[in-house]
Amino acid sequence: MTEHPWLLFGRASKPLLIGAAALLLFSLPLPAPDPLRETAYALSLDPEDEDDEQEEDEEEEEEEEEEEEEEEETEEEEEEEAEEDEEEAEADEEAEEEEDEAEAWDEEGEEGEEDEEADSEAEEDPEDWEDPDGEEVSEEEGGDAEENEDEGERDGAPEPEDDAPEPEGATDAAGAPDIDPDDGLDGADDFDGFEIGFEEDGDPFVVNEWVILAADISLSGLDQAGFDVSDVETLDQLGRVLVRASSPDGMERSAAQSIILGVAPGAVVEHNHIYGADNAAPFGWRPTDLMRVTPAGASGTARIGVVDTAVDLNHPSLRAASIQTQDFVSYAARARPFGHGTSVVSILVGQDEAFSGLIPGAEIFAASVFFDADQSGDMATAFGLVQAVDWMMQNEVQVINFSLTGPENSVLREALATAHAQGIHAVAAIGNDGPVAPPLFPAAYDDVIGVTAVSRRKQIYRLAGHGEHVDFAAPGVFVTHADAGGLYATSSGTSLAAPFVTAALAILMDADTAPEDALIQLRASAEDLGEAGFDPIFGHGLIQMPE
Question: Residue 363: in which H helix or E strand, if any?
Answer without folding.
Answer: strand 363-368
